[in-house]
Amino acid sequence: MKLRNALSLKYGSSSAFFRNLCPNDVTEEYIYALRQSGQYITNTSANISRAEQQLYIENILTSQHSTIFGLFIDGTLVGSVGCQHLLNPDGVTLGLLIFQETNRKKGYGKLAIWCSCHMLHNSAGISSFRAGIHPSNSASLRLFFRCGFYETKRDDSQILVETTYPQVVQFAKVRSPCFIPVDSLT
User: pLDDT-derived band of residue 102, with 50, 70 and 90 as boundaries?
Assistant: First the structure.
């Protein structure tokens, strides 16, 4: 699903931009991160190519059930959030990937989750969110808890966390969020 708006904001001393990814946003760095995260991103092949991911994003933009966003910090794509089950009344499923290890532990994951929930709530009226987290991914679990999610189910293969939009935490570093029509983007 392609949304008609992008989100522009300040994050600390940086400019942040959050929008639907486009096929030309797929870089080799993005592909490398997808390959490295295969343990946690179960719907991606370990041998995925740039062309395959570009086609995937192209198809997602026409879907009514899924979307994928990109988080840009000072003009550089640092991560993505895949959103599935957009029409599910039980909640949209979020999947987060911050590409480079050097960009982790800077708050970009929290920012991307907040932006996803804020964007989907304000642009598509979605208020329920969930994520399935592999039990060995304790960093991701802590991140979702800090964002206002809570555990609802656990088994050997995943921990399910959920929240509703009013409980999603907007962090102090987020300032001046505003929506910009996609048509005005260059």
Answer: confident
Q: What is the residue type of 65?
A: H
Residue 109 C-alpha from the chain's centroid: 8
pLDDT band at 103 (very low <50, low <70, confident <90, very high): confident
Which tokens hold the place of 186? 């260059």
Q: How far is CA 184 from CA 52, 151, 169, in A?
A: 28, 39, 29
Residue 169 main-chain phi, psi, to 5 deg: -85, 125
pLDDT for 186 equals 42
Provide the residue range defining the domain that includes 29: 5-184
**Token digits of residue 134:** 């592999």
SS3 content of the chain, % helix, strand, coil (to 5): 30, 35, 35
**CATH code of residue 20:** 3.40.630.30
Q: Is the pLDDT of residue 185 over 80?
A: no
Count of structural domains within the chain: 1
